Amino acid sequence: MSDRIEAQRIAADLEEPVDEANELARKFGLDPYEVNYWIVDYDEMNELIAYGGFQQRYPHWRWGMQYDRQQKQGQFLGGKAFEIVNNDDPSHAFLQESNTLADQKAVITHVEAHADFFANNEWFGMFAERPNAAAMLARHADAIEGFMTDPEIDRGEVEKWVDHVLTLEDNIDQHVPYEPIDTRIDLIDEHDTADVAEQLEELDLSEEVKGQVFTEEWLEAQTDEEEGATFPAQPEKDVLGFLRKHGMQYDGDAAKATEMADWQKEVLEMLRREAYYFAPQKMTKVMNEGWAAYWESAMMTGETFAGDDEFVLYADHMAKVLGSSGLNPYKLGLEIWNYVENTTNRREIVERLLRVDGVTWRNFHDTVDFERVLELVEPDAEMASVVEHLDELDPEDPRVDAGALEAAREAHSDSERASGEPASRAGEIDVETYPWKVLTYEGLAERHYSLTKPQNRGFLSRVSQEELERVSRYMFDDSRYGSVEDALADVDYARGWDRMREIRESHNDVTFLDEFLTQEFVDENEYFTYEYTQSTGDYRVTSTDYTDVKKKLMLQFTNFGKPTVVVEDGNYNNRNELLLAHQYNGVMLDLGQAEDTLKRVFELWGRPVNLKTIVKEFDEHDVEVAKRRDREPEPEEVGRLIRYDGDEVTIEELPWDAVEHLAADDIDYDTKPEEWLA
């Protein structure tokens, strides 16, 4: 009972921060889903994290493993769970009751930005209609638990079937909208290519009956002796969907493939649906976390949402989030969003300065006084220090919220009469605590203009000659300015934020990195690549070139960093065998894991399964020579076919022309999965 009372007390204390954070987010131009906030204890938070942000999931050992990992991380590695929020409408966010008020405010501002990303990024819109995800996952949980408790279904078989499907949960086509597959039994399969002779054999008909019903000419017409009918016509990325349509289960007792049971079809489709639901979160991890970190910082520090007595704790919170080891999506995402804002704002300034008489892209650095330019674009004093200039604000100014200004002035004058106590009457605005309330989006954009912040003051002067020439080449506006002052008189302070929202709507991590990770970004943030070298037997820094850094990062985020495997043929060699193909990008498959995965796929296909791939092989003599000469040996790339027939795994070499189409172009072939960017 006391725990419940404590949770209610915390919730009451957070009502104001929640309301104010949502209003501030909307002032910043965000449009988040409504968010329901819940107060949970330490164990409940770990359970939610294990369940992927939801309170109910289907029974499976993976949740217990993830719970144990999360708990050990908190106990032994110093990791702390600040929050978790799910993609739903409304969204649900869970706050840990042991967090400080500073942490809770940071979490709330972070969550509002996530809810905006969920609501406005088109990749989340790919999941058909906006989901009631909590209800969907609860229905799946109840259904799968129902199968497990059904006396006519062996619980162990259900658990194994779930394991088989989860092995392939990332093998979907995340670039197309989710399309459900009917879970009813298909009476006729348009792609039923089983050998007619085998089907007749199973019917156990006498030769006399066969001769009377099926002529020899008809039987020959059903079989293409030269090349069997193959499907799909094009490689199919949605392996789970293909298996749902055409797969069978392997009956060990009968030693043959049989129709999937209804419950097996339903479980496969439910887990496939969940894979499509979670795909956008995996596809936008860097963008989404960076987006939330950006707006959290703008609210907590830029608008002092963290009070004077909370700022140090908040700074520690942010340092832990951004300072975690490995490839940190929060840090990388925040840095790229900052870079996008700065480059957009810089382009606005450059375009205007290049229209000043006497300024060209060739003499730009010699002619422009950058310190003077920054002085001219500094936010007006009324925007930077609202409280000190409250009486000077013009309600007709588009940067000012006239209604809020009137309420703030009334509250401020009442507060002064009451010896500095904050306003408390309904409708009044405490402008000292919430100065942003009297500003519009345009006013806040000027107040937060990125190029004049101390950490960015050198960004404008670092514009390269190449960029100046490029901007000049594509300028079609003939208007000219007589002076720098005239050119900068009506700068669009919101251009950076506007561009950020455009990007937020359309990009995923791969396109985000591809478009905005430049040499300037790599140099400024000190990124580099490193690799394991055969010649030295250790890891070495290999490049600071942005193209190399980009390749490393994009390889990790393409297909969630997992190998891309497609269905190439559902009737391989005209024997109803499944042929999968690994789309090789220079990163070899772990052949041991590939063999284990094929065994799982066999259970979902019911017949032999095959996998084409490309592997690298090093000649031992070449390796020794390379070591002596301190250089890397050149590997030979060869094709391999891995096959599992239900009893044993075999591997055979394939000619290069059989796998050449699997090799991607323009990829760093020296990259290995464990060698990502530091």
TrEMBL record:
Q: Which InterPro entries match?
A: Spore_V_R, SpoVR-like_C, SpoVR_N
Ranges of residues in domain SpoVR-like C-terminal: 563-614
Write down the superkingdom of origin.
Archaea
Q: Where is this region: Disordered?
A: 406-426
- Where the record annotates domain SpoVR protein-like N-terminal, the positions are 12-347, 496-561
Positions with biased composition (Basic and acidic residues)? 407-419
Protein known as: SpoVR family protein
Q: What organism is recorded for this protein?
A: Halosimplex litoreum
